[in-house]
Design a protein that fits this description.
The complex is a heterodimer of chains A (112) and B (111). Chain A has 112 residues and is an all-beta fold. Chain A has a single domain (3-111), classed as Immunoglobulins (Immunoglobulin-like, Sandwich). Chain A contains no helices and eleven strands. In chain A, β9 and β10 (102-103) form a beta hairpin. The termini of chain A are far apart. Chain B has 111 residues and is mostly beta strands. Helices cover 0% and strands 56% of the residues of chain B. Chain B is built from no helices and eleven strands. In chain B, strands 2, 4, 5, 9, 10 and 11 form a six-stranded mixed β-sheet that branches. In chain B, a hairpin with a 5-residue loop joins β7 and β8 (71-76). Chain B starts with a strand and ends with a strand. In chain B, 34% of the residues are buried. The chains are: A mainly beta (112), B mainly beta (111). Chain A binds chain B through residues 41-44, 46, 88, 90, 92, 94, 96-106, 108, and chain B through 30-31, 33, 35, 37, 39-45, 48, 86, 88, 90, 92, 97-104, 106.
């Protein structure tokens, strides 16, 4: 069966510090991978998605970037965090873009 | 980009009551999913519907996909406190396969 991992689970970082969140998927090959941000327990904002190694599409201009160095690894980064980057970050995978997405446990980021 | 509208945004009911939440759009979907999310956790897939008019049941939950594949509803019978959570719908656009999420309905079931 497939599993998806995210770490860390929680993170408190000062403004201006760098960020690196990691997501890995097990039990599947060549998944589509996604990064979402969720504010205040509401809807999901798609940040990035990837259909393959090194292939990243950005949905919104922002202070964040994403990379996919390996088939089942997806990384969300920032060089300098802003207060507005605080939120709940979710990684997800799917077989293809039109299919169901399966989510990781999320990372709660607080920028102080 | 199609907009998925969920209603109501918030719903607070007593244990044992029935409820229905809705997911509507002006766009046609090739498939539609419902997820439930508990605080501090990732959304969990409940069901996928793909055929217009399709009805799926999951214990006390009944999911219906509209005939035109533009809308869906989730009906919960005899709600329990364990049903509390954020219910999200997501649809794959028929034309470009983009998957989009609604803003969710936050359900609270009081014992």
């Amino acid at each position: 069966s497939q599993t998806i991992h995210q770490w860390p689970a929680t993170l408190v970082q000062p403004v201006g510090s760098p960020l690196s969140l990691e997501c890995t998927v097990e039990g599947t090959s060549n998944p589509n991978l996604y990064w979402y941000r969720q504010a205040a327990g509401r809807g999901l904002q798609l940040l990035f998605y990837s259909v393959g190694i090194g292939q990243i599409s950005s949905e919104v201009p922002q202070n964040l970037s994403a990379s996919r160095p390996q088939d089942r690894q997806f990384i969300l980064s920032s060089k300098k965090l802003l207060l507005s980057d605080s939120g709940f970050y979710l990684c997800a995978w799917s077989v293809d873009r039109e299919y169901e997405q399966y989510f990781g446990p999320g990372t709660r980021l607080t920028v102080t | 980009t199609q907009l998925l509208e969920q209603s109501p945004q918030f719903l607070s009911i007593q244990e044992g009551e029935n409820l229905t939440v809705y997911c509507n759009s002006s766009s046609v979907f090739s498939s539609l999913q419902w997820y439930r999310q508990e605080p501090g956790e990732g959304p969990v897939l409940l069901v996928t519907v793909v055929t217009g008019g399709e009805v799926k049941k999951l214990k006390r939950l009944t999911f219906q996909f509209g005939d035109a594949r533009k809308d869906s509803s989730l009906h919960i019978t005899a709600a329990q406190p364990g049903d509390t959570g954020l219910y999200l719908c997501a649809g794959a656009d028929y034309n470009n396969n983009d998957m989009r999420f609604g803003a969710g309905t936050r359900l609270t079931v009081k014992p």
